[in-house]
Amino acid sequence: MSKKQVWKIEWKKPDRRRENRLFLETTSLAATFLVFSVILISAIDIDHLANWPNPLFMLFATFSFCMFLFFATVLFRKNISDYYDKIFESPKSSSFKQWFLSILFTVWWTAIILTFITGIIPNISKIPEVLRTPAIMLTFAFLICLIIAMIRTTYWKEIFAKIFKTTSWRKSQMPKAKIAVIGGSGFYKIEGLTDIEEVNPTTPFGKPSDTITIGNLDGTSIAFLPRHGRGHTIIPTEVPYRANIYALKSLGVERIITVNAVGSFKKELKPGDLVIPDQIIDRTRHRAETFFGGGIVVHIPFADPFCPVLSKILYDAAKKTKAKVHRNGTYLAMEGPAFSTRAESRLYRSWGADIIGMTAIPEAKLAREAEICYAMIAGVTDYDSWQEKSEMLVVGDIFNTLRQNVGAIKEIIRLAMAAVPAERNCECASALSVAIGTSRKHIPAALKKKLDLLLGKYLKGDS
To answer: 180 in the Ramachandran plot: left (φ > 0), alpha (ψ -120 to 50) or beta?
Structure first.
């Protein structure tokens, strides 16, 4: 089997159990709507179409048949779950479509119940006798299926959640987490989480890379965000770094542990090794690197880009596992998405860089601006291209190397959770206190409102 075929299976193969469940649920919905449309049509008095409730019957018979056609069409798709996700759950689907579907389904279910109460039940005698008993049975069956679907099925819960997500009650119910993990290439989920909730926070900087998963890991609330999206769909330059960090800040996150795939500039940093870096060289060019500007000047202290306290906790946790880990090292952040030329790789090596990656900047800078502690577990996957006879870098090989360490990385995270202190005594927690250069009275009111989450506690003065 070729690497291309392996890649296709890795990313595209659907969850068969979920597919089978959705196939049965979709079949049931299609059959229910078909039967419901037949019952409504049979209840119509052809000779008195204008009389109530005939217009209502005709309207909902037509709509029911359309819904039958929709679900019947879904059954012929190769990947049902992927289709439903694109409609209801994808953060990339348009907000108009989601609101339209939310209102449509809510009105529909309400109207169905009212139709049964005011139309079919009082006029059951108008239904042909041969259909009367099946109609009554199917009516109750339909209502039971409706209640079960609304309570149990993910998609109906998603629909109704969207209706209330912008209310103050909904915001007050947003789950919180003080620790977040940002997963890089090949690291898209954390097993072992309980009490899982998925949230899609809105930010002034757009939507995050993907849905944020919040759960409980050994008694600690933790948020997880796949940097490149599930399925690895976002290149490093296009990652919504500001939205990601702002969204995590809005969830109460105080510490971020990031997992990154990196190349090595040192022979002793071998593929499969882990590095907890302490410095960064920035070679990125096309990324928004700050939350500020446009009327407010902020110069954030960034001498030590990684939180030394959190980095030490990660290193100590790594030493308790079987992984080979190296403490400290300089991470060179390149633009990408292309890998380095041989000349570039040798230049970066001559500067004293130890590892190279594409995503620590502006992520680390934004985390500091948000006063969030930031530390990295870097998984070495290759030797970049500085060696004279180095092999061509292959994305599939890089991901495969990182996957060999996924188990160890998850164990390091689990051990680190238990060692994180309740209070923060590092400089990260108050970085903005010495960074704001603009007089408070000259900061535009709109900007104060936009950045209240970050600057609110520092903008109470008027000087």
So the answer is: beta
* 3-class DSSP assignment, residue 277: coil
Q: Residue 257's pLDDT is what?
A: 97
For 101-112, how does the pLDDT look when each residue is reduced to its tens digit (9 = 90+)? 555 555 555 555
Entry pTM? 0.64
For residues 345 and 119, which has the higher predicted lDDT (pLDDT)? 345
* pLDDT, tens digit (0-9, with 9 covering 90-100), for 54-99: 666 677 677 777 777 877 777 777 677 666 666 554 444 445 555 5
Identify any residues that bridge with 226 across adjacent strands, giving them in sequence order.
Answer: 183
Q: Which two tokens stand for residue 49?
A: 């179409």
Q: Residue 36: which of 129, 137, 105 has the closest Cα? A: 137
Sequence-distant (≥ 6) Cβ neighbours of residue 29 within 8 angstroms: 67, 71, 145, 149
Q: Tell me the backbone φ, ψ of residue 395, rounded to 5 degrees.
A: -55, -45
How do residues 393-413 score in pLDDT, each as one tens digit? 677 677 777 777 788 898 999
Asked about 85 being catalytic, the answer comes back as no
Of the pLDDT bands very low, low, confident and very high (cuts 50, 70, 90), residue 10 is: very low
What are the distances in angstroms from CA 309 to CA 305, 314, 418, 428? 12, 9, 14, 10
From the candidates 304, 354, 382, 452, give the one annotated as an active-site residue: 382
How far from each other are the two terminal CA atoms of the chain, in whole angstroms? Answer: 68
What DSSP line would sit under 41-92, residue for residue? Answer: HHH--GGGTTSTTHHHHHHHHHHHHHHHHHHHHHTTSS-HHHHHIIIII-TT
CA 30/CA 39 separation, integer angstroms = 14
Which distant-in-sequence residues (6+ apart) come within 8 Å of 326 by Cβ?
A: 268, 269, 273, 274, 275, 276
Query: Exposed, middle or buried, 273 (CB in 10 Å: 0-12/13-18/19+)?
Result: buried
Residue showing tokens 């079960």 = 148
> What is the C-alpha separation between 256 and 236, in angstroms, rounded?
18
- Please choose, from the candidates 361, 254, 244, 384, the residue with its C-alpha nearest in 3D space to the C-alpha of residue 307: 254
| DSSP letter, residue 119 | I
Q: How far apart are CA 237 and CA 147, in angstroms?
A: 45
Q: Active-site residue 382, yes or no?
A: yes
Give the active site residue among 45, 304, 384, 397: 384
